[in-house]
Write a structure and sequence with these properties.
This protein is an alpha/beta fold. It is 51% helix and 13% strand. The chain has 21 helices and twelve strands. The protein has a six-stranded mixed sheet. It starts with a strand and ends with a helix.
């Protein structure tokens, strides 16, 4: 039976292995499908997006969110919810995780101060230097305490100092359960109750009542297969999931060396999560997106509400979807893409003319080409979380088409055309100006640094019909602090430039050459 693991932590939160190392380990261990479920962050997933295709693994987005129990269940302490299959670019989810991340950063120095008050010599600076992770957590503190001989073991650090009720424990930020579940749902994901066997209830009926409460919020599944669930608990949770019509998931809660004895895909050699769990989970994600195509979320991200929403629906219809669903879409979005390209070019050109009154035609053309390039438009599409709303054929969807630059940029152009047809040029241009505001400001600020090389290249081609020649004539200084001397030759002039890099020296030489040419 192929192994799957839907509960894994990396260095992005409190694991000891990087996201890339986890991919490699999963493949080497014969694991077929995984989800990276770091605590309150999806940074690790962003780190490996470009690497996923290189591994023979099925992958689904994941996160583990720490939650405040609902009213009536205050004694539970912390409830953990897993989210699967959500869009990485959902604004509400990212805002919620940012809040949690900030709270975690504020918590760690408080823990360190408590330990210092107890006479233990440990600092945030040495933790950050030792682990070099973006998100320090209690496991990192515990590991450091072991290394410094302050405690006998990792578990001793928690039992004596860091655990709930211990002298260095600091209450952590927790999102309300109903908010966490709704946030995952709105992001197109599936919310699942993590390791229910770790929750303490006086009676089994209290657990069932708790699950019913979460189901009322929109809970979709239970983590049945889990490292610390014995056979009796696993059987009970499987029955409960079936009774409540919830998905069954499972995972090892792998943390690498921070959770000794727990291996990826196998836990304490006591779990075997069937692949059918992964298949059911991905099928549910697809079904939920098809059933609840939340175009209102996309409109909010755009800052525009359509009068004729059929225009937006056509803009989101990729030809691969139309080929498989002739009765659902009247046409694909390629004609709108053609129109959107023209509208977008005019709008961006208009914006640049307004904001750069001193720039020449060549400079404006270069800036416009950068702003409406495929990578730039794809990034803009990600900002508005466009990918999750594009309707794709099964093959294209299965190969990650919703995050391909080509599909994202083309669909963004189609959406621009849909807005133009729905509201006219002025509204569209105002909207484009708002969406591109930060990108344009950043590009113009960067462009303020004069590119002498580009300028003299254009001048040389126009006046002399040849390009300037750059030659490294000298390198001097120690290896760690070299200075380069570069000679520029063009027609009848010759200049020498200096810089700490070859590019900087070339710019210096080009600037001097332009000054000479101006004087002639």
């Amino acid at each position: 039976m192929p192994l799957i693991d839907l509960h894994i932590h990396s260095t992005a939160s409190d694991g000891s292995l990087s996201p890339y190392e986890i991919l490699a380990l999963a493949q080497d261990s014969g694991v077929r499908a995984i989800s990276l479920t770091d605590h309150d962050t999806i940074d690790g997933i962003h780190d490996i997006l470009d690497d996923l295709h290189a591994f023979a693994l099925d992958f689904i987005t994941g996160v583990e969110i720490s939650c405040e129990p609902p009213k009536g269940f205050d004694g539970l302490g912390s409830v953990h919810l897993l989210g699967y299959g959500f869009s990485l670019y959902d604004r509400q989810l990212n805002q919620a995780l940012t809040t949690a991340k900030i709270a975690r950063r504020q918590r760690n120095p408080k823990i360190i101060r408590q330990l210092q008050h107890l006479g233990l010599d440990i600092t945030m600076a040495e933790l950050e230097d030792r682990f070099k992770t973006r998100q320090i957590g209690r496991p990192h503190i515990a590991e450091m305490m072991v290394e410094k001989g302050m405690v006998s073991s990792f578990s001793d650090a928690f039992d004596t100092f860091l655990g709930n009720g211990c002298p260095a424990y600091v209450v952590k930020y927790k999102m309300p359960c109903d908010q966490a579940i709704q946030t995952i749902l709105d992001a197109g994901g599936v919310p699942v109750l993590a390791h229910p066997g770790l929750l303490s209830f006086k009676a089994s009926k209290d657990l069932e009542r708790f699950v019913d409460t979460l189901v009322g919020y929109g809970l979709q599944g239970i983590e049945v297969f889990y490292t610390d669930h014995d056979a009796r608990k696993t059987a009970y949770f499987k029955t409960l999931a079936r009774k409540k019509k919830l998905l069954v998931t499972g995972g090892s809660d792998f943390h690498g060396s921070f959770n000794q004895g727990v291996s990826l895909g196998r836990g304490k050699d006591n779990i075997r999560v069937p692949y059918t769990c992964f298949k059911s989970l991905t099928d549910r994600v697809t079904a939920m997106r098809n059933l609840h195509n939340r175009l209102d979320i996309l409109e909010n991200n755009l800052g525009y509400r359509f009068v004729d929403r059929s225009l937006l629906q056509t803009a989101l219809c990729h030809r691969s979807f139309l080929n498989e669903n002739q009765t659902v879409c009247d046409s694909d979005n390629e004609r709108l893409e053609f129109l959107g390209d023209a509208v977008l070019g005019l709008c961006v050109g208009h914006i640049l003319m307004q904001q750069s009154p001193t720039k020449k035609e060549g400079e404006l053309s270069r800036l416009r080409s950068t702003l409406v390039s495929e990578p730039s438009l794809a990034d803009m599409a990600r900002i508005i979380d466009l990918g999750r709303f594009i309707r794709l054929g099964k093959g294209e969807a299965g190969s990650g088409g919703g995050d391909k630059n080509s599909i994202l940029s083309d669909t963004f152009e189609a959406v621009v055309a849909a807005i133009f047809l729905d509201a006219g040029f002025d509204v569209t241009c105002d909207l484009i100006q708002h969406l591109f505001e930060e990108t344009v400001d950043r590009l113009l600020a960067k462009d303020c640094t004069v590119d002498y090389k580009s300028r003299i290249q254009e001048y040389a081609q126009e006046v002399f019909s040849q390009a300037p020649v750059y030659t490294v004539t000298r390198e001097f200084g120690p290896d760690h602090d070299k200075t380069f001397e570069i000679c520029l030759e063009l027609a009848h002039i010759q200049t020498r430039g200096f810089g700490k890099s070859k590019k900087a020296a070339e710019q210096d030489a080009a600037g001097k050459a332009l000054n000479l040419l101006k004087k002639k």
